[in-house]
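call fold(seq) -> tokens
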Amino acid sequence: MLLSVDAGPWPFEVVPAVRYCRLRDRPAWEADLHLDLLRPQGGSGVRTPLVVYFHGGGWQAGGRELGMYPWINPVLAANGIATASVTYRLTTSDPFPAQLEDAQAATHWLLGHADELGFDPDRLGVWGDSAGGHLALLLATQPATRVRAVVARCAPTDFRDWHLADEDQPGSVFYRFFGGPNSADTALRAAASPARYLESCEPGGATLPPMLLYHGDRDETVPYGQSLDFARTARSIGADITLRTIRGGHHNLTADQNAPWTNQPWETLAFEARRFFMRHLTN
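ret:
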């Protein structure tokens, strides 16, 4: 199937439900993890950059289909950047680090199949919203990362000193994410924190990819200070990072915290992200 959108000149092929991993010790109906590919169709034999999207939902909800919103993966595919939107295990069944393991497995599979799929394995980007932005930043800050550009919107970055009133209550977001009271395992909380990995980077930031963060300064779910502190630390080691503050923006980046995640400012941010990825992955 070939589609096109007004945001760019490239038609693209939709390749849905590609299996990238089979989990062990799971029933057959829940053992396979999938991703959806959008592959630009504009040049014979041209290897394209690849950007992988991770959805939000507090690590306990959402799905890879969110990557098909026009202002997410389609706007990139319409401009010659191949994309993948990934299913990862949710905390309703699997606590951290299952989500990071799945993100790593998906990118490993994609890079391993770069030749047959027409990707350039040296031009990999990642992005995500909220919990998905957190996973994108975790991938980008891992040692020996192959990520070359990352966009994260309203993403958590540091759990070490961030506490929620209900974090010790079964069923709460942090309880599920950490598989129990989140204060019980400080090492696990550190391992889940992208900010912690910045501290092991050499001055000069050469090991980190360029990063573009978005965060509303009235975010009621993920404190704005998470991105502010992360950006400050990244700059202190010479990393290439931009924090775009959405003034008056809540977790949905709008002034109305009950507004759906649609249209503005998401379309505008999509075009900015497109320019960012094209600058760092296509030049």
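The longest strand covers residues 12-22.
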